[in-house]
Amino acid sequence: MMSPKIESFVMHCGEMGSRWGFNRTIGQMCGLLVISKQPLTANEISDMLNISRGNVSMGIKELQSWRLIQVQHKPGDRKEYYTPAGSIWEMAIRVFEERRKREVDPTLSLLRDNMLEEPADESEAYAQDKMREIHDLLDSLTHFASELPQMGPERLHSLMKLGAGVGKVLDMKDKFLKQSNK
Amino acid sequence: MMSPKIESFVMHCGEMGSRWGFNRTIGQMCGLLVISKQPLTANEISDMLNISRGNVSMGIKELQSWRLIQVQHKPGDRKEYYTPAGSIWEMAIRVFEERRKREVDPTLSLLRDNMLEEPADESEAYAQDKMREIHDLLDSLTHFASELPQMGPERLHSLMKLGAGVGKVLDMKDKFLKQSNK
DNA sequence: CTAAAGTTTCAATAGTTTCTGAAAGTTTAT
DNA sequence: ATAAACTTTCAGAAACTATTGAAACTTTAG
Lengths: 182, 182
Prior knowledge:
The structure is a homodimer.
Chain A: H1 4-19, H2 24-35, E1 40-41, H3 42-49, H4 53-65, E2 69-72, E3 81-84, H5 88-116, H6 122-162, H7 165-181
Antiparallel strand pairs in A: 1-3, 2-3
Chain B binds a DNA duplex through helix 4.
């Protein structure tokens, strides 16, 4: 049915899925759709992965809520065909975005609420300090992440290859700006 | 026992813990240790969070395997006191590193193995293409992440504030290098 | 309107993970 | 060597999550 290479990949996606906030079968479904050249129907997915039709239906709903898959229709065919919604890069961005909405945003708002109140004693003052530290880190990270989509994979690639060299480029930029201001 | 502000933070850490690869109580333990000025004993943790002593012991082991907490001893006291292992920044880096080891490295090696073999047909060729795309993205990300620790939080902060502006800085650098080569 | 082709829902079941608490283990002081 | 103070382990119970499959629903064609 599935070639062994493809199967090993799909099963691995299942394992990873369960660590990344979906469950095993949803991970498998996502992996399968990504490496399939042709769009697949719900029944095909159910057969290829040996999972019940109902489970596939719930999985599709979930993957749609993550904006990772799309429906397609073929003329003269009532079935719904599913494909990944965009490139790997776009899908990765969407997972980050969704997780930010679901996990980071509520955390930031809890931290902010907590920081507004006056600390009642020394231990609360310390706690607030730490919360501010966490808040600032999360805030920086989300700002950065929110710019990624506009950056595209090529620029990301050069940024990533640069690695810690980024520090040097930043210094260079600062120097340059200082000179201009003189 | 715990002030309401601190409690709400700790409970929230529990929720987040369960989405980030630990479980709820381990998340709570970690949150509690991070915002406590004083080191805590296992019994104190057990009392403050209302969880069994055995559970705390397992949680400590797990947090140590993530390199997130440290033991301390007080002179003339046999108990073990626990504190976070480093700053928030260092703890975040450790979580990324551990997850890379546990999740990304095995994925990369599976993808590489799969890509070495000759595709048997068109659909395998397509699958291999997609696998290469995933491989290259993960590979870039891990390279970048591996440089973060040497960068420190201040530089990260300026990089993050820069956001998509990074693109422009990269272009600037490229131009600069071209001119030097002429 | 009805049948056929398809999709979704949801109660029940299966499977997995987490937590407890009692027993076993370890370390230190005397 | 013993007892006291503390920690770890692990089998079983409790809690939670995922999966099935049959019934209900929707859509289209004739």
